[in-house]
Inverse folding.
């Protein structure tokens, strides 16, 4: 790509999403904007988030408890303001989604309902090297049922050269477990390698064996087009502080397929999950609200929901995930092509090369091992280019289509070239 700079400038000039960059607060490095590639860990702050939070604070100041009941942003129904845009984002029916709690809390709530082991069917299947929180959750759920990971936690090992997992390996593991398998918990994107998975196929394979299919979509929501309803997932959980840019520790999301929404599944119940029409009768019997909202526990965190409103508005105005994915494939493809052309002796891309098997993130190993990798990572930080480090030896670079530019990608490659030549 001999005219990389010309190409980057032309692509940025023609980018229909270009105006959205100005809707974000981009940290400074000295007298210039930081080149930020960490949307897979914490997205940048939308400028509109402050106004949404201030609206809640002003309502609290001026109306106090009456803020629960007054106006279109009454707190009693505030969580419903994000229901439809969130359903659009993840490809669900509005009644199948709810914004509540945090990711691992939601995962435990889902496992309490959907992991119903029997002596004949006790096993949970996950990927080897799963994000620690997921593994902690499933292991603790096993132990709560008197089971143990040594016998009842199945971890599918990578079978491809760069530590990724083929669909054939997933299919083989599900088939091998067969009648023992109670639940498959799989990521939309594996956090360390950046590999994306076919959720519909995994759900099909799990269901064919009589197992539940659940997904952790922390790195997939706001990154990949999703169709949770059509993929036939039983449940899914995710956070909103990565690609969805709703702020640190943002309120999380949860999906429950409509076939389970009225099924009377056992659950960890709370007052806010009671049907709204009779909630204030304060009766001892729990009558769950229809759909995913029936898994709510306590009052929604209004101040935490406010930035999510601002973010989801951006996704809708940008044209949804179809438009964002179109740019993301070009942006990540540009990064991948430049690395393979100009840095092949320095960086190894361990994320799959096929666009369908990855999102925005490329996971990179540096020639020379961990010490050399840390040296490059710290050099990039000093120059104002921020990716993130994942042990033992991976630098993750994630160009987010809402605010990253083709010029940002080129700057990363040029700085790695400079470091290599020093």
């Amino acid at each position: 790509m001999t005219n990389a700079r010309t190409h980057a400038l032309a692509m940025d000039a023609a980018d229909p999403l270009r105006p959205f960059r100005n809707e974000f607060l981009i940290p400074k490095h000295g007298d210039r904007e930081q080149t930020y590639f960490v949307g897979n860990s914490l997205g940048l702050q939308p400028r509109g988030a402050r106004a949404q939070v201030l609206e809640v604070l002003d309502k609290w100041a001026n109306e106090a408890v009456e803020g629960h009941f007054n106006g279109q942003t009454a707190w009693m129904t505030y969580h419903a303001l994000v229901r439809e845009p969130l359903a659009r984002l993840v490809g669900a029916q509005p009644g199948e989604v709810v914004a509540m709690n945090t990711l691992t809390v939601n995962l435990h709530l889902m496992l309490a309902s959907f992991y119903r082991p029997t002596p004949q069917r006790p096993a949970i299947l996950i990927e080897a090297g799963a994000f620690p929180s997921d593994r902690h959750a499933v292991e603790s759920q096993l132990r709560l049922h008197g089971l143990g990971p040594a016998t009842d936690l199945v971890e599918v090992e990578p079978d491809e050269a760069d530590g990724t997992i083929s669909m054939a390996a997933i299919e083989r593991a599900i088939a091998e477990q067969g009648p023992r398998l109670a639940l498959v918990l799989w990521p939309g994107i594996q956090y360390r390698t950046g590999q994306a998975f076919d959720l519909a196929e995994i759900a099909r394979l799990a269901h064919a064996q009589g197992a539940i299919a659940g997904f952790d979509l922390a790195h997939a929501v706001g990154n990949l087009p999703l169709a949770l309803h059509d993929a036939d997932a039983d449940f899914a959980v995710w956070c909103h502080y990565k690609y969805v840019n709703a702020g640190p520790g943002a309120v999380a999301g949860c999906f429950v397929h409509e076939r389970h929404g009225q099924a009377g599944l056992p659950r960890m119940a709370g007052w806010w999950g009671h049907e709204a029409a009779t909630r204030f009768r304060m009766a001892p019997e729990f009558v769950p609200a229809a759909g995913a909202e029936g898994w709510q526990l306590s009052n929604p965190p209004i101040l935490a929901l406010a930035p999510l409103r601002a973010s989801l508005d951006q996704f809708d105005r940008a044209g949804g995930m179809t438009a964002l994915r179109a740019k993301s494939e070009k942006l990540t493809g540009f990064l991948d092509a430049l690395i393979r052309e100009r840095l092949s002796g320095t960086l190894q891309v361990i994320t799959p090369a096929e666009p369908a098997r990855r999102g925005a993130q490329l996971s990179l190993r540096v020639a020379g091992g961990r010490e050399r990798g840390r040296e490059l990572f710290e050099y990039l930080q000093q120059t104002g280019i921020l990716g993130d480090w994942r042990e033992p030896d991976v630098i993750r670079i994630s160009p987010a289509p809402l605010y990253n530019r083709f010029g940002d990608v080129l700057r990363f490659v040029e700085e790695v070239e400079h470091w290599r030549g020093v």
Q: What stands out?
A: The two ends are 23 Å apart (CA to CA). The chain has two domains: 4-33+320-421, 53-316.
